[in-house]
Amino acid sequence: ESVLTQSPGTLSLSPGERATLSCRASQSLNSRALAWYQQKPGQAPRLLIYGASSRATGIPDRFSGSGSGTEFTLTISRLEPEDFAVYYCQQNGRPPWTFGQGTKVEIK
Amino acid sequence: EVHLVESGGGLVQPGGSLRLSCAASGFSFNTYVMSWVRQPPGQGLEWVSTISSTDASAFYADSVKGRFVILRDYSKNTLILQMNSLRVEDTALYYCAKGGRQMDEELDYWGQGTLVTVSS
């Protein structure tokens, strides 16, 4: 089982700042199978990034993903008020598919 | 437009059973991988189960293996999760999610979830 560890647990930033979220895998992953999701309170998760670096339909270009192997990063170039939420990475390369524990991006 | 609507959640005693359904529309249901993901109150996401488009393969988290069964009703475009021998730790919001055509693709659409509470 590939365990995903996200850091930091909480990121306190101001609107307009840059956010860098990390996802580390316990085993090397096929980059095709690394995704990032955003979840706001009371809402279902929303796909942001798939294949480690491809933006899903309708996702603004301030969101970008990078990485390979065991180290992956989600970057939000300039935080908008609607970006304050919890972010999860997920690997779906081979079962069991796993999620990271999440990073909360909160307003400083 | 893709729509996924879950139903069937509720309060059940430990050891009981529940059958969750997910009505799918807006896409070719028999072509895509489907999954269940759960979220305990105040906690993170946990993958539960995935079924291939052809029913040839089904996978389960160790925490539910042998107790839960994932099924597809092609005639009704419905994904099902039959949950037996429920435990308190199964309490969660259960989401239905659409995958890609292959097993190793992302979950691109999610329902709003149905709440399962296991308590005496």
Briefly summarize what is shown.
With 108 residues, chain A is mainly beta.
Give the key terms.
heterodimer; A: 108 residues; mainly beta; three-stranded antiparallel beta sheet; 10 strands; 0% helix; 55% strand; B: 120 residues; seven-stranded mixed beta sheet; globular
The CA-CA distance between the termini of chain A, in Å, is: 35 Å
* Mean pLDDT over all positions of chain A: 95
The succession of helices and strands of chain A, N to C, reads: EEEEEEEEEE
- Shape category of chain B: globular
Helix content of chain B: under 10%
Spatial extent as radius of gyration of chain A: 13 Å
What class do helices, strands and sheet pairing of chain A give?
mainly beta
Strand fraction of chain A: over 45%
Low-confidence stretches of chain A are none
Major sheet details of chain B:
7 strands, mixed
Task: Report strand % of chain B.
Answer: over 45%
What's the number of helices of chain A? 0
Low-confidence stretches of chain B: none
Quaternary: heterodimer
Structural class of chain B: mainly beta
Q: Any idea what the radius of gyration of chain B is?
A: 13 Å
Helix content of chain A: under 10%
How many helices of chain B does DSSP assign? 0
Explain this structure.
The complex is a heterodimer of chains A (108) and B (120). Chain A is mainly β and 108 residues long. Chain A contains no helices and ten strands. Chain A has strands at 4-7, 10-13, 19-29, 34-39, 46-50, 54-55, 63-76, 86-91, 98-99, 103-107. In chain A, strands 2, 4, 5, 6, 8, 9 and 10 form a seven-stranded mixed beta sheet that branches. Chain A has a three-stranded antiparallel beta sheet with strand order 1-3-7, with no helix packed on it. In chain A, strand 8 (86-91) and strand 9 (98-99) form a beta hairpin. The model of chain A has no long low-confidence stretch (mean pLDDT 95). In chain B, the strands form two sheets. In chain B, strands 2, 4, 5, 6, 9, 10 and 11 form a seven-stranded mixed beta sheet that branches. The model of chain B has no long low-confidence stretch (mean pLDDT 95). In chain B, 0% of the residues lie in helices and 48% in strands. Chain B is built from no helices and eleven strands. Chain B is mostly beta strands. Chain B has strands spanning 3-7, 10-12, 18-25, 34-39, 46-51, 58-60, 68-73, 78-83, 92-98, 109-110, 114-118. The chains are: A mainly beta (108), B mainly beta (120).
